[in-house]
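Project outcomes to date are best conveyed with an example. Our students and postdoctoral researchers have been running inverse folding experiments weekly, and each run begins with a structure described purely in tokens. The record below, which covers 194 residues, was selected by the lab manager from last quarter's runs and is presented without edits.
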């Protein structure tokens, strides 16, 4: 009786036989998923950037926007092995159907996000000059009401925060999705305090 209790669980009125859970295959799939995740977070840019890489500000923009693309690729890397697992290995029919549905939705969603990030990286960035109204977290508002998300690295954001404040004229390099990949002080923009 105790042995039978160890080999099965009861979930929502359905008896689950632990022999249906293939720990070795699950472990291998998990290891592949983690390996692909680490690889995706370190893959260098393999697409041509829309930014002018001879300009230091646009080069910084390209690096920061590529990090978004890497994150999107990492999300694909997490779910793709589970879709392959659901397609290749037969298990309990209900478990396979659930895993197949969740993994398919995950692959479709993360692939869409990765393509959006890749398109953003390869598009020509827009240069916007303005005066900072305020910065809150990773969002910057310019005077006139425009707001943008800052996708600067943590180190770049920390070094910019002392001068990135209300009334300071700035130049932003912005992706088509409204993400700021680079920011610089801009003396050519008139500031109310000058």
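After processing, the design step wrote out the following sequence:
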């Amino acid at each position: 009786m105790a042995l039978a209790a160890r080999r099965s669980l009861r979930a929502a009125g359905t008896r689950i036989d632990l022999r249906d859970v293939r720990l070795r295959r699950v472990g291998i799939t998990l290891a592949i998923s983690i390996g692909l995740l680490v690889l995706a977070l370190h893959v260098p840019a393999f697409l041509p950037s829309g930014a002018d890489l001879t300009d230091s500000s646009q080069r910084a923009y390209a690096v920061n926007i590529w990090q978004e693309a890497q994150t999107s690729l990492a999300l694909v890397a997490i779910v793709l092995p589970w879709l392959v697992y659901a397609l290749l290995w037969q298990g309990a029919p209900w478990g396979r159907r659930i895993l197949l549905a969740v993994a398919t939705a995950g692959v479709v969603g993360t692939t869409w996000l990765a393509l959006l990030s890749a398109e953003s990286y390869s598009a020509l960035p827009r240069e916007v000059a303005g005066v900072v109204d305020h910065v809150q977290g990773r969002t910057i508002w310019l005077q006139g009401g425009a707001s943008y998300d800052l996708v600067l690295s943590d180190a770049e954001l920390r070094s910019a925060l002392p001068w990135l404040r209300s009334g300071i004229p700035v130049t932003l390099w912005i992706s088509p999705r409204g993400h700021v990949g680079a920011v610089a002080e801009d003396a050519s923009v008139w500031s109310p305090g000058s």
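The chain is about 50% helix and 20% strand. Residues 1-9 have pLDDT under 50 and may be disordered. The training component of this project remains on track.
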